[in-house]
Amino acid sequence: MSDFSRVLCAIDLTEPSRRALDCALWWARQHGADVSVLHVHRLAVLPPETMSGDATGGAPAQAPVDTTLPPDERQARQLELENFVEGSRTDGLQIEVLLEQDPSVADAIVTRADALAADLIVVGAGTGSNSEHPVLGRITGDLLRAASCSVLVIPPPAADVANPCVTGLSRIMCAVKLSDDSRPLLASAASLATESSAHLTVVHVVELSHVAAVAYDFDAHREVRVQPARDELVELVAEVVGPDKPAEEILAQGNAGEEILKLAAEESPGLIVLGPASGRAAPGAGRPTGQTVAREARCPVLFVHAAEMGATRYPIGFEASRPFFDNQG
Question: What is the CATH number assigned to the segment(s) 1-44+67-167?
Fold first, then answer.
């Protein structure tokens, strides 16, 4: 994770996006990266009936409205963006401020990230009607499914939670599966922990529904699933992190998203590292793990680049047959 050269931060000129910008600038300073700050003016998408005649072939019921910013308004918006970013600029950082216009904010961010060959996209989790957590904006959800690089999701500001990307990272939590796919994820988290001199906690959740928990014979279940998983987790951490870079292993049982959030509340990490988002949950499957964590976590959540995990990138709107993030990483 130490080869970052370009960070793209998407902002919407709100205070929550200022928090995201602060994190993007901190990340760039840590890795010697350049920063592009992008604001997307969302163009209106006209309903079909305004674009064509009625059923009898008559004239459109309503004339299309052009929501593109005229030159003077575009210049004013660009200046507003420059002023928004100006207060956060620091010596030694190369920062460009970009303004795009697109019907899809997520599409525009992904397209710009690809054009810049960005290594990381930094974006806010979103804001609800009362600007309180938990929330995951639709734009951020779409971006997680479509981004071709790692994505860092920043939660809204909270009075009782300092911005770790300003104060520095002291604790990092990484949630993993017990498979080879988790090795590059854990290696990335370990690299970040080393760079920040942070304590690393490695979590694996043995998925077990509440119904199954009641039905299981606990001793048999422990013998068949829990203890072998604990042994594999310890072995994985020893092989990937190494004995000279100690890490704490935690094995939990239950719903992965709920358990990761519960442990995060207890451990208070400054960053949670997860594997890539790769689609949407199947109908009736409940909210996927990654979406749950990004929606409710009180600290930034880093989704590591899908290519590092050997995962497939899905386009915006793709409906997967299994949850994105069927497990933890």
Answer: 3.40.50.620
